[in-house]
UniProtKB/TrEMBL annotation:
Entry-linked PROSITE patterns: HTH_CROC1
Phylogenetic classification of the source organism: Bacteria, Bacillati, Actinomycetota, Actinomycetes, Pseudonocardiales
Name of this protein: HTH cro/C1-type domain-containing protein
Domain HTH cro/C1-type: 42-78, 127-162
Superkingdom, natural source: Bacteria
CDD domains: HTH_XRE (cd00093)
GO MF: DNA binding
Residues of the signal peptide: none
Gene3D superfamilies noted in UniProt: lambda repressor-like DNA-binding domains
Length: 233
């Protein structure tokens, strides 16, 4: 996963204010605050100024969505995702996304494990296991940016995963495939095989590739390796 660089949020917000979509002139902090209020949000112009300068760097999920809505961009854009909105799209925090990440994680993973890992990292502040449970259950749905980044890095997904349904479908599909490959032992096999490749003859490499290809064809695999082993006894 590509890490979201430090200061990205401030840089994105400042650039959007300087070059707002569908507008020829700059958007002032006061104008942006007014636009957010018109949409039912509540972010003061002084706080917007601090966010643009990077003096404040940990807005809530709701603040990210309010800023994105007023600026006419996808909230995922603030965390390294796509900028453009699809027609009729109304993106929002996907609280079910975190449960999916836990369900598809390798091995048994608990909120305590995740909280300890993120908190010990030091880059994303601290987070408690109880708060992660609240996010999992939908009791809390307004995490701050650093928690979003920390969760994304821990589970090795783009931070935009939590906002972008289209991206999430692709990521979930990739993770589901990986789960199946692990259950089949393919990941372990390939890892071991990669370490042995320099020792294998070209004939063995070709035979291995053919055996794998045949095994993936229903009714085709006849256990060539097993037969040869039995014949040699």
């Amino acid at each position: 996963m590509t890490r979201v660089g430090e200061g990205l949020f401030a840089a994105v917000l400042d650039d959007l204010c300087r070059h707002p979509p569908a507008r020829r002139r700059r958007l002032s902090n006061v104008e942006l605050a007014a636009a957010i209020r018109d949409r039912g949000g509540d972010i003061g112009h002084a706080y917007i100024a601090q966010l643009r300068k990077g003096q404040k760097d940990n807005p809530t999920r709701q603040a990210i969505e309010d800023l994105a809505g007023a600026l006419g961009v996808h909230p995922a854009y603030f965390v390294g995702g796509r900028r453009e909105l699809a027609e009729g799209e109304t993106p929002h925090w996907r609280h079910e996304a975190l449960k999916t990440l836990f369900d598809t994680a390798h091995g048994t993973v608990s909120p305590e494990d995740v909280a300890a890992a993120i908190s010990s990292n030091g880059r994303f502040g601290s987070i408690s296991a109880s708060y992660i449970r609240e996010l999992l259950n939908g009791v809390s749905d307004n995490p701050r940016l650093k928690h979003i980044l920390g969760l994304a890095e821990h589970f090795d997904v783009p931070p935009a995963y939590f906002f972008d349904d289209r991206l999430a479908r692709w990521v979930d599909s990739e993770r589901a495939d990986l789960v199946q490959l692990r259950e089949l032992g393919v990941v372990e096999f390939v890892t071991r095989l990669a370490g042995k490749v320099p020792e294998l003859s070209q004939q063995t490499r070709r035979a291995t590739i053919q055996a794998i290809a045949d095994a993936l064809e229903p009714g085709k695999y006849e256990g060539w390796f097993i037969r040869r082993d039995q014949e040699s006894r």
